[in-house]
Design goal:
The chain has 228 residues and is mainly alpha-helical. The protein is built from twelve helices and no strands.
Length: 228
């Protein structure tokens, strides 16, 4: 079977003229960048972000050979929160940050250095990895059972841990209702489980030394203690 990535460009080039294709690409890019700008300045709520845009905006940028600045707009908190609301984690956001880094690297030149922007992307991805790798799996499980994190969020953060710890954590969550609810609601589309909207999460765009979540604060919240 021919993959979608192979037959769609062929179909497009065979049946549509070049000007029409360019106009369509420009329309998608314009819509996407306008939506991203609204997210980043707080004019659009994360849960109102179209699911299609989240999943395909970077592809439209690539197809239209958009400038590096269009990709840098994705390395912001507004876009991060939209992805977090959609999937309960930072997987998609991390993918887009990696794409921004690659575009910046290709456009790097002596007369237009991109060191600061590339470093920004690397720091964001490092922060995301640190959040998952440095949070004890038992704490993630406890937070899920207490309703602080959703099952989808915990599954996402466990991806950064060892296979042994991941297996133990998922095994411990199997009897919990949240695991069953997550599997039943996996096809509901953007937003996933309703419990994660409006909650406080680690700020992966802050690049501060404290970007990794405080395990003590998460533990207090999971236990229902005040002071979080």
């Amino acid at each position: 079977m021919v993959s979608r990535a192979k037959w769609i460009p062929h179909l497009r080039e065979e049946h549509f003229d070049r000007e029409y294709i360019q106009a369509t690409q420009a329309a998608f890019v314009g819509w996407g960048r306008k939506t991203v700008a609204q997210l980043n300045r707080g004019a659009l709520r994360p849960e109102e972000t179209p699911a299609y845009l989240l999943q395909y905006h970077t592809q439209h940028l690539l197809d239209a050979a958009a400038p590096a600045e269009a990709f840098l707009e994705l390395v912001e908190e507004g876009w991060l929160r939209a992805w977090e609301t959609f999937e309960g984690g930072y997987r998609g956001f991390s993918r887009d940050v990696r794409q921004a880094y690659e575009v910046l690297s290709r456009g790097h030149a002596a007369d237009q250095p991109r060191f600061a922007q590339r470093l920004r992307c690397q720091l964001v991805r490092s922060s995301i990895h640190s959040i998952g790798a440095n949070t004890p799996w038992k704490l993630l499980v406890a937070a899920c059972k207490a309703g602080v994190l959703t099952y989808r969020q915990v599954a996402h953060w466990l991806e950064f841990q060892s296979s042994a710890d991941r297996a133990e954590a998922l095994g411990d969550l199997v009897p919990h209702p949240a695991a069953g609810a997550a599997s039943r609601g996996a096809g509901r589309g953007a937003g996933g489980s309703p419990g994660h909207r409006g909650q406080r999460y680690p700020h992966a765009c802050s690049y501060r030394a404290g970007a990794v979540p405080a395990a003590g604060a998460l533990a207090r919240r999971a236990a229902g203690s005040p002071g979080y």
